[in-house]
Amino acid sequence: MVLSESNVSSRTRLASSTRASVRPTLTTTQKRTSSRSSTARPSPDRRARCADEAQLGRVLESCYAAGRDRRARRVDGALLGRMLEPRRATKRNRRAQSADDDRLEEAVRKDPALADLTNDKGQRAIDLACLECRSAMQKALFFLGRYDVDKGPPEHRSATSLVVRAVDHEAADDYGKLFDEFDKDGSGTLDSNELGALATKLGTNVEILKLEDGQSYTRKAFVAKCQRLFGKERKVVLKIFQVEEQWRNEKRGRDDQQLDARYVVQTIPAPTDDEFAKALGETNLFGEGVGSRAIVMDAANRNLFQIYQSERPDLNKVRMLMQQVMECVQHLHEKRLVHGDIKMLNVVRLSLDNRLRLIDLDAAAKVSRHDGDYVCAKFSSAILPPECFAKLNADQVTKFEAYFEGVDTELREKVAPKTKHGASYVVKTFSLTDDGAPKIDGLPYELVEASVAVDYWSLGALLFQLVAGEPLVPSNRDDDCVNAKSMAILASWNDHAAKKNLAVIKDAAARDLASKLLVRDPDERAEFSIADTLAAHPFFKPPKPGDVATQEKLDKIIEQQEKDSKKLDAILSLSEKHRDELRQTRSTLMRAIYEATEVSTPTAFVVLKERLPAGEASVELTLNDDGTGFVVEGEAVDEAKDRYEESKTWLNLCARFGRGVAKCSPSAIAEAVAGACEELVVGEEMWLYLIDELTGKPVVPEGESIYPIRITKPAEVVSKLLPAMQVGLHAASLVNGVAGVVRLFGYPCPKVPEAWREGAQNSVEVLKQESSVEAFGAVHEKVQDGGEETETVRGAALRELEAFYAKYDPDREYAGLRRIGDPSDGTAVWTLLTDPEEVKAAIEKRAAQRRAEARRHDERFQELMDNAEAGAPAAATTPAMPIAAAGGGPSAARALASPRR
Description:
The chain has 901 residues and is α+β, with helices and mostly antiparallel strands. Helices cover 47% and strands 8% of the residues. Residues 179-540 form the Protein kinase domain.
């Protein structure tokens, strides 16, 4: 038998897991030791073995001869014989063995292929070597002398960590050491009641270790069981942390909460933290700057993304996978932990029982009613809920960038703002101090407290991807949003977005479950119950033949989804011409102070002193052909006149707002607000009506409803809602002038008599000025707050309106109004209409009114110009020409624009 370098196997470190589990020996120890001092003639087998040893010795010698210490003893066959067989532990032998081991380690370190030299039987030198020599070779070959790291690409790499696969060649030794550690009484056995803590330390669950009939383990039996379960050479992963605080967070989450190995992949016995830090600092095996902290875990056979891609699970398999993931998340929540980063890459399957478990607890946070943690220190933005995003203005972006100045390039790219149409979106992330506390100073937003609601959203995104075959929003390889549009979709998520996006899920039960998880309001989302869902939801408990109750529940789900689809069809079936008109409609409402993508509530409303008649009590009047009056007389006309006068009072008030702004006069604004309270906000109550944005009419619900909302402290409430209400009046004035405004107040006629119109036209022309509306909001906000610096008018107006809805309409009934269209392309409006033909008719009618009002505006402008040329007094009318805007913000530098067409 000859050991030859031509027999060197190509060394791949992961392949070393296939090494023989039982090491063959070259000799019987006692005979071999005595034969070296004996004069007896060696046997043929002995001579063959010596020849092998001599050949290997010459190879080792040639390698060693290239070393620095050329005075060393020759590495000959006799020396190799001593190196390859165990000896009695005498003091002299120990010294000799130590020197031999050092020389062998250095030789193998210089040429790792020496350990893979094989004989004609395919047996390798490292497998044939005695324990001492094998340890010396492993020390040279393996990381920390035990981990044979895969030479291929890493299992996972992110901005903050690196995960690599390896084979642990000292795992078998750990099994025996663990037995000795937990055999507290020194009896040499472990009873079933002693296995719980040991199983946790071993990184598995106790049920796998238990013997039948409660039998006890001997040391030998325990080691053998572990070798069968995990392998004599255990397949593991090393997770190396670049950010030390995330390493602490991962260890703290595991150690403090005593997590169950059935649901979370556990850490397993490994070198000490200091040994890891020293070894990572001395090696370049993993590249530069990978970090100095690590944990070791069992290697999974696949993560959920690999299962999804390669095994292509059907709906039944998805049901089983989601059940296992939800059980894992439920376990974390029972331990008062939020995972914070539930995605496919962080769910793995172990071969022990082929069940899914969670990994990556470095984003985990503790849930507490008092002094809880924050989420998003580490994140994957494409699976985060809306509350985890912030929309920043230019000043806030500057502040954000200053906060993260100095971080490494990869992390800076991950957290960088994503910009769309001038709006910048970021995740509400943060840095940590050396002691692990969040750095809050300098952030342009409030942090998000840890809540189970964060994990529930991520579960919804996970379910969506499994059943829809695509991520919830476009994302990159790290599950981060690819652009600002993706972030904007999540940040502005609402019921309409949910219905539109979830419509791609074909299974009704799966879509219903996703809709319960992907809810915008975190408080509402937090009420979701995993236990109740697993026990009763049709997705996990599909109806069986004869199961009437479950089938009825599923039928109701399908019926509601069909209604939602019909509403979506009302927009999807529109022509591009109709969609353009919808965009125009929304633009007139939103441009002044709102962004369409951020408004999730109706924004058009009026406040009246009296309730409008409902149902049959409402009268529709008909204008005379000459436009001078109405066909009928009496109470109906008086009522119409009253509605007109109230709307005219509001118009005059808004005109005073605009003129005060034009004069750069906060005092004029304050006077106008006070005037409103004196003229309009009188009595003990007022009534708020929502406006159908397609028809331009106030919504008068039939039957019991919280609408119109009764305001019992009008002087206090109405003044806060003035900027938002003025936007609705502004929009109506652009579409249909005086008639459009007065119809908001329940005026029961499509047209207004010319004699009436003339008295309100001047106020309407001022109201049409878009920048006047915007500037009023800014000045009004400062007046309300005593002139101090405040947030943007957009944020202030929305804040007041949303707070009002939260108080008076917590269930979001909105008088039956529903949002149709798409916020992202500007076609979303709030209306009672759902039938596609009715929607088209309303859009066409609105377009005709808008064109007519535009012509009327042009005619009036021309009339004013003609009067000016003829020398008519300019003060007689209010000019429709642009006037200087005031109030701060962009409007201060922009002249008032003429109406959009």
